[in-house]
Amino acid sequence: MSERKVLNKYYPPDFDPSKIPKLKLPKDRQYVVRLMAPFNMRCKTCGEYIYKGKKFNARKETVQNEHYMGLPIFRFYIKCTRCLAEITFKTDPENTDYAMEHGATRNFQAEKLIEEEEKKIQRDREEEELNNPMKVLENRTRDSKMEMEVLENLQELKELNQRQAQVDFEGMLGQYRDLEQQQRQREVDEDERETKEMLDRALVKRLRDSDSDSDQDEKEKAGVKKHAAERPTDILTTAKSTDIQVSTGPVKRVQPESWERSVGGLGAKAVLGSLVVRKKPTASASKSSSSSTPSGPSTQQTERKTATPSSSNTQPAAKQNSSPATQSAVPQNGSSLSLLGAYSDSDDSD
User: Fold this and answer.
1) Alpha carbon of 187 to those of 156, 173, 175, 179, 192: distances in Å?
2) 3-class secondary structure for 18-53?
3) In DSSP terms, which residues pair with 87 in a beta bridge?
4) Strand pairing report for 49-50 and 55-68
5) Could you give the CA distance from residue 45 to residue 108 in angstroms, rounded to a whole number?
């Protein structure tokens, strides 16, 4: 079985092409071909736009009596896709393009119009130079001047490109990065300095507050101590301490409070004065006591201060009721008297 789509045909050895009868076909006969629209066009009948590349089943024929350098020119017939109007165009081998002939207008052909205008100008110039030699000279002078201007412009562009080529873009970028880094470092340093100043101010303020708090605490402690020293019950301990420390030196007595004046002290000195009678020393005894104890005057002053009116009032009765043994047992110095008073105070408290 032979292949279906072969290009070469089999010719037998006894084949004679002259024996093949020739068909007499008309030269303007038409063929149906498949083609695409060579350019954008618009139908004159309905205004439909036909874009470039649209496929059509067209009829093809050879244009009679038109040739370009021995090349035939072909004409194509297509139908509008909307109104089925007939549109014709033909080949243009001179411009390697297609030319619209009938039924539609070509769109977007500004470039082609410019080229046609340039060709027309060039043709008119050649015809003018052919008959006028002075015009030829003028045209050449103008062309040379234009060429010099073009060369100058080109030289300027080259110099501009060279200047741009000499610019070190990497160096510029590196310099910009350095400047940006310096600016960033400067901002960081400023932030750190401001933060340090704020911390210093806060520390100074804290120290001042702590100093003021400490001063206030000291004042409060001093006030508490003063208040504690001025409590009403401190007279008891103050009296005892004065009685014990009589021998050491003079002690200033605490001023009694107003309620003590009305009610009376809680000490046992009044009771001691009513129970014990102090014997008056003789002249020889007073001299010996003054010579033996250097603190005699202070002791006498303390005893004189501790004596109360109640003791002086009850002294005769105590002399009458006291026995000779009791009188002999009472010491004459102030220290023994203070010890006896403390002892009697403890007994009373019991």
Assistant:
1) 45, 21, 18, 12, 9
2) HHCCCCCCCCCCCEEEEEECCCCEEECCCCCEECCC
3) 78
4) unpaired
5) 19
Q: What angle do CA 177, 181, 184 make, to 5 degrees?
A: 140
Helices (runs of H) and strands (runs of E) counted in the chain: 12, 8
Q: If you ran DSSP here, which 8-state letter would residue 94 be given?
A: T
Over residues 195-224, the pLDDT tens digits come to: 999 998 888 888 877 777 777 777 777 765
Give the position of tokens 């050491």: 248
Residue 306: pLDDT over 70? no
**pLDDT, tens digit, 9 for 90 and up, residues 328-347:** 444 444 455 555 555 554 44
Long-range contacts, 294-300 (Cβ 8 Å, 24+): 295/247, 295/249, 298/246, 298/249, 298/250, 299/246, 299/247, 299/333, 299/334, 299/335, 300/334
Tokens, residue 188:
């960081």
Does the pTM of the predicted model rise above 0.85? no
DSSP-derived 3-state class of residue 295: coil
Cβ contacts of 271 within 8 Å, gap of 6 or more:
344, 348
Residue type, 81: T
